[in-house]
């Protein structure tokens, strides 16, 4: 008959147990000492463990964080654009003074040269974003969205600000529409128009093969029907 071996007891003598405790304590002390003496840099900040998958509202929380980050980025870009516009305004003022001084020294100006200096495009608005929204001269704001991914180029905050202003209208221009399939452009146009009520105009990129920019004529014609001139339109690209 096979004898069952008894299980070894984990009992120790007090001296042995204290000896083990002493060795463990000494080992931990040396480990802490080596960490203090080590020249390798270690961050004391605890790493963010993230949101556990078991959290029921993880997707909603991630969307809120992403929306907050996007708003902060848009505010940062707006402040940067405001500083650049202010600097450009100061440079433009300085150049106007120099031009006035040069004009006093010139006795005659060729009429043909004056006609060549007239810009053929709409004047560039050099004011800040707040000045653009408060200006009564700007009646339509054209927001350019890349047709390859329009949703990433949208600005909910800016759209809400423009919509809240009386006398101002918002228009979406899908730029680079020639780089995506026609079905995709049509789907995005229908989605944006249905969800926001804002008219959408697909516009192709200028190239040597295309004599005119497809879609730009429709946008200009739509603005002409409403009696809007070039100077009344502000364009903003993202």
From TrEMBL:
Tree of life domain: Eukaryota
Region (Disordered): 1-59, 80-111
Residues of the signal peptide: none
Biased composition, class Basic and acidic residues, residue ranges: 80-90
This protein's record includes keyword Nucleus: yes
Acidic residues bias locations: 98-111
InterPro entries xref list: Gnl3_N_dom, P-loop_NTPase, TRAFAC_YlqF/YawG_RiboMat
UniProt KW keywords: GTP-binding, Nucleotide-binding, Nucleus
Residue stretches spanning the membrane: none
Compositional bias of kind Basic residues: 1-31
Gene Ontology molecular-function annotations: GTP binding
Major place of residence: nucleus
Domain (Guanine nucleotide-binding protein-like 3 N-terminal): residue spans on this chain: 15-88
Subcellular location: Nucleus
Protein name (Swiss-Prot/TrEMBL): Guanine nucleotide-binding protein-like 3 N-terminal domain-containing protein
Organism whose genome encodes this protein: Sporisorium scitamineum
């Amino acid at each position: 008959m096979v004898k069952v071996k008894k299980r070894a007891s984990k009992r120790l003598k007090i001296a042995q147990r204290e000896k083990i405790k002493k060795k463990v304590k000494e080992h931990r002390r040396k480990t802490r000492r080596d960490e203090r003496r080590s020249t390798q840099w270690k961050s004391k900040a605890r790493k963010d463990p993230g949101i556990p998958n078991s959290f029921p509202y993880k997707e909603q929380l991630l969307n809120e964080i992403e929306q907050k980050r996007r708003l902060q980025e848009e505010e940062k870009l707006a402040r940067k654009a405001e500083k650049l516009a202010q600097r450009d305004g100061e440079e433009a003022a300085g150049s106007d003074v120099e031009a006035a001084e040069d004009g006093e020294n010139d006795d005659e100006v060729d009429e043909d040269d004056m006609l060549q200096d007239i810009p053929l495009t709409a004047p560039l608005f050099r004011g800040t974003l707040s000045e653009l929204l408060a200006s009564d001269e700007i009646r339509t704001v054209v927001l350019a969205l890349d047709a390859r991914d329009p949703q990433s180029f949208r600005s909910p905050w800016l759209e809400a600000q423009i919509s809240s202003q009386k006398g101002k209208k918002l228009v979406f221009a899908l730029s680079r529409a020639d780089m995506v399939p026609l079905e995709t452009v049509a789907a995005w146009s229908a989605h944006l128009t249905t969800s926001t009520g804002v008219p959408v105009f697909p516009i192709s990129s200028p190239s040597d093969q295309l004599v005119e920019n497809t879609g730009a004529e429709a946008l200009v014609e739509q603005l002409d029907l409403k009696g809007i001139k070039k100077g009344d339109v502000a364009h903003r690209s993202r």
